[in-house]
Amino acid sequence: MSSPSKYATGQTVNALRGLILHGLLLVLLILLGTGLSLLVGMALRGLVVDDDRQLVLATALAFTVIPGPLAWLLWVWIRKKLIDAHPTDSAIWSLQGAAVYLIALVMSSVALLRLLSGQVDGIASNSWQELTGTVVGWGLVAFWQFRMLNSVKYAPRELPHLAACLGNAYALGLTAFSLAVALRTALDLLFVPSVTLVGHSPLPRLLGSVIWVLGAAALWFWHWKLQRVQALRDNFNSFVVMLVGVCLAALATLLAATATLNIVMPLPWDFTEMGLRFADSGPLAISALLSGAIFWIYHHWQLVGRGLLVVTVSRQIISGISLALLASGLGMVVNALLASVSSPLNSDTAPSVLRTGIALAVVGVVFWALYFRPGVPADPESRRVYLVLFFGVSAVVALVALLIVGYRVFEILVAGTSAALNLLDYIRGPLGWLLATAGVSAYHFALWKSDRERLAAGRPQAPSAPSAGSPVPTEPAPAAARTLIVVAPHGSDHLLSTLQLTEGLAVRWIASSGPRLPEEITQQLANRITEALATLPGSLLAVAGPDGQVSFTELAD
Amino acid sequence: MIALATISVGLIIAALIVVSLRPAPPLRDADTPAGVVQRYVLAFQSSDLSAAQKLVEDGGDKQVCDPYSSGGETAQVSLVREATTEQTSTITVSMAYGSEGGLFFESYESQDVFELKKVNGTWLITATPWQMGLCTAEEMGL
């Protein structure tokens, strides 16, 4: 029949049109941001036009005068469609808005922090006008975009909190990084002695980095608490928070722990060398360790109420990282041990390789044991993907290592140079890799096979006892699959935003014609819908009447 | 986590205190090699050519080798090693230039050597790092 295909084509055309329009708006806003920043910067210099600034002024004017009105016209045209937009259009709008917001936020916040810390830290800078221009120009764009995204009329219904979520992730990263820098400066000043002949006091530099930390922390606090990103419980937001707050922080912490252990271990038994290592990279390692650990623990604690899927995935990612560290460490240990067996010319790299390998292996094994819990029999369903992934990746790496070993063996045989002792030294690197990754691959393969057997053995019993079935796999399923379709008049956004915060619920709104509902009736509606969600299972259609009555229809999934 | 946060804040505050209380680098005696180097660097950074020339062997007709490089101006110079004998001295210093950029001040650090010779009982500089050197017109190629 022609009409479904026409409908499908019509949808594609609409989506494409939405993409192009919003893409244009994105580009225009970015150009406008650049132009405004340059213009304000030049204005602060008194619009003095000497040779090098002519081009800058021309660019500034061009980027303001042309994109400005065009962006406004485009926005006026687009916004009419946004009021009750198709879900695809809404999603594109949210993506574009979030992209503009994030870019403008990054530019303006970095410029602001540089400006503020530049007042204190005494690094001679005569570019405060440009920095202020950046702050004002990009700040205006960020502010406007944020207001549009959160306005009652135009707020996107799909991915509604994307901008705040990404802004929060950025602020979190910036805070953690600036905390690490500040701590590093502090540790450097405290513990790394240096005999200064000539130099300025390092106090301004330390104060400048403290300002960065405070500013970034304020930005994070604004997103996390005031924009209520912390309260968002749906899967997407939890995933983003988990990825940045837990996994990235864990990665940084584990690497820093390895670096610290590497410095502290007195493996060539030489304390002067240990002191040199500490002076070189000690402050960096310890500061990264402290900063990463703080944010990791905080977000770990935050993930507690957020549903099994997010927690499981985060555990698996962290155990994957620790396993990678463990395998690398074991490879390096094998490498170093083989080096001590053969007698190469430069034998002094072997102890440092051994030391780094032991550090990696120790950190890796501790956290892998904690997060993977190899002794405790785990639910086979949840870790299938993880096991297959690890088995696959380590098999590929083992194959590459095997190829390198083979290549080197053949190279020595064919070139026929000196004795077999050289062979061992030549292949010890890739041989270490090979042994480590082959071990990892074999272990995960064995686990996967045993899991498969357990699953196959478990299945015949499942249909016979459906009500008393395994509690663990069914827990996430009902919560995640519920849809709520609300038919309510315009202006019921307050109702929707409350409902969108419920975990595991996909909310869709179809606007009904009719007068706007007053506030108390909207509240009654919200209460009735929440009650119905608690009592009726499955997906629901809720049609709101003008006097606060709601009729519910249960939907088939 | 609270413990870690307190430790971090405590470290930063401790560093602030320590740094505020740290005295400025003392001016060393003018008859030690380190003192001569210190005075030379101070004179160089404040563009006091005559004072710098006095500390360099045959310094009378030497000019700043590279007047356009701003590297030497704002460097922080720390003493790394001193190897002094009766007549000669080699002083290894590390020069750190803070780069602008707020968060990413990877201060570029390089180590270099000052060579000194005892001439008539006073220490004079014979070789300097290139950032802070004085050269004759011939050496500069003029």
TrEMBL record, chain A:
Keywords, alphabetical: Membrane, Transmembrane, Transmembrane helix
Residue span(s) of domain DUF5671: 315-438
Superkingdom classification of source: Bacteria
Record carries keyword Nucleotide-binding: no
Residue intervals passing through the bilayer: 20-44, 56-78, 90-111, 131-149, 161-183, 203-224, 236-261, 281-299, 320-341, 353-373, 385-410, 430-448
One Pfam family linked to the record: DUF5671
Name this protein carries in UniProt: DUF5671 domain-containing protein
Native species: Glutamicibacter soli
Lineage, uppermost ranks: Bacteria, Bacillati, Actinomycetota, Actinomycetes, Micrococcales
UniProtKB/TrEMBL annotation, chain B:
Superkingdom of this protein's organism: Bacteria
The protein's name: DUF4878 domain-containing protein
